[in-house]
Amino acid sequence: MESEDPKKIQEMKTDLNLLLECLKYQMDNPLSQKEALVTIHSICQQNSDAGVYFREIGGLMFVKNLARSSAHSMVKEAALYTLGTVAEKNVYCQQTLCTSELFEDLIWFLSNNDSNTNLKRMSVYVILVLVSNNRTGQTLVRETGCFKILSELFRAVLSKYELNLSDKNVFQNYQLWSSVCGTLCVCVNNPQNDENQRLCCSLFPHANDWLKNCMLPEIIRPLCSFIGLTLANNTHVQKYFISVGGLDVLCQVLVQLESDSHKTLSSAKLAVVVTKTVDACIADNSTFGEVLAKYHIVSKLLALLLHKNLDSAEKFSIILTLGHCTETCEKNQYDLFKNNGLPLMIQALTESQNEELNKAATFVLCNCKKITEKLSLSLRGENEAEQLEDINMKEKNIEEYWKKAKDILHRIEQLEREENEEKTQREKYKDNVSSMKINVQNTLKHLHTDSIGPKAEDKDTSQSRKLQSYKSHGFMSKAYTKDNQTKTLFKSANPVNACYRESGQSKTLYKANPSCNQNLQKETTEKKDSVSQSSDRVFKHPNLIVKNRKQQLPVTDPFTLCSDIINKEVVNFLSADNCPQIFKYRCSGCIAVGKSLNSRNFSKLLHSCPYQCDRHKVIVEAEDRYKSELRKSLIYNKKILLTPRKRQLLSNECTTSGGIKERKNRKNFTEEEVNYIFNGVKKMGNHWNAILWSFPFQQGRKSVDLAQKYHKLTKRPKFVAP
């Protein structure tokens, strides 16, 4: 007995003796017996030693017999209530009352149709006290058939899913059903009883129906406690619960409660209770986590974890459930990655000082380490597959290139054959042309002496000099003309015949061969620039020919013109055989130079070249147009320069030009953007950068703008989140 004042102990003993005598001598007065029993209950509840003394004086057995034999319901209820209080406060009293006779009496009270709801409720309460933390009581519940009566009450007490707890009768039935749920929980747990857990499996379908059809907290909490304790540490029961669809029902309830948790705090608290039940179902067998992937439970748990009004114990339950979900299921691990679960786990580690919560967060991170390794290996495999595909594509491209190369080689061989045939034709014409040259010179001399006189003799001497110059510079004339032009000259008719036929008419001579004028211009330019400009003859010079066309055409007779043309053609025929290699000269931008070229010296090189090809001429003209447009824009904006300047000069100009910055254009937030903000806060919390990157806001939005807008909206009176 406790060390208390002996006077008080003696008073307590005196009171219990008097009350027991009152019970014995007031058998015909149920109200007096009820009052005496209530007084004994209050004394034993305040002092646990009072129950021991009451047992020693035989009061406990007398109350037990009174509950069995009394004809009044109120006396039975008070007697059972007193027995339950004494057994709850003292273990010795619990062991004394834990007999099969008492369990049989309680079964009779529960199964009797004449027993009212309160009497049944008091009977269930006594069973709860006798079984709690007592393996002997758990065994007697099963062996005496009391468990069967409790199961029937669990199914039959509440008949309708729509409960009106304001009704007195409905509320009394609900209290009885809730007491039955609590008693069943004690029968299977603390200590854990595998046989009783298996017996409770028969109640799972009925519990699932109630979870589907009734979302009241008064129903969900007792059912989740019963299911969680029945599933705890029992793989066989867990498999059966999943086979009857229990885990799917829990997931559906959790999804519904999580969606309502942002509106009411009670839904968030109730969602945590369901989360604990889900964790009890998958804790011993993590393969069951694949069922959760169908309902995206991981994302729902992460959203629930962001609720501000949850305490550390509730957050620990959520994180532990996440750890069991992601232990072996890769889908859940991927959902954790996709919904920013890793930052939340790291945040929980850094901010929380609860060791259990930190261990749970570390457990989740270890599970994620496995999936990161697998993802890295899969990425490597994908890269290797892509490389193999690239190699196959390259091989196909190489085969196509080989085909094209063979076609080109075949064309080259055809061109070589044609060129060899042309060479043979040139050799045939060589003898004829050489004899023709001598005859033409002799005849021209006679014609000039007859028509012009002494001036014609000067012309002959100039023609002979010209012929020698053609022999010396035959290589240049051949380089100037293209290969296709030489071929057409060989195939065309001999202009000598035309000159002899039309010797008296200069106009018809020009019509017969329009290329005579061009050849004559080339001859005159070669006379003037024979020595001083020999190096410039490598490039084309079409501009000089066009400008000096009228000046370089002397007024002479047709015979002189024909002689010049014929001499040039003859020299070209002779030089073709002496110089088999024909060089094609281009502008300075096309030929290879010794120094390395870049964007600056190449432009200077093109501008300094007087002879440009068509391609580089277009490039130079485009560059000049671009620079001219920039110069025009310089007039309107003095800050635009063609050449870069130092940053300090530009910064000085910007500061001295007024230093007034343009104000940012204001863009009002649309309703869609406001919804984006609240959805982002709902999923990711106050991580504004993550919200800004996750939703399509207007261009120019910053994370600071989102935070300010959110705080303004939440500070408004009567604000309701969308």
Automatic annotation (TrEMBL):
Which residues belong to any copy of the Myb-like domain? 665-716
Q: Where is this region: Disordered?
A: 445-470
Coiled-coil blocks: 398-432
Q: Which GO terms describe its biological process?
A: homologous chromosome pairing at meiosis; meiotic attachment of telomere to nuclear envelope
Write down the SUPFAM superfamilies for this protein, in alphabetical order: ARM repeat (SSF48371), Homeodomain-like (SSF46689)
What are the UniProt keywords, alphabetically? Coiled coil
Entry protein name: Telomere repeat binding bouquet formation protein 1
Species of origin reads: Pipistrellus kuhlii (Kuhl's pipistrelle)
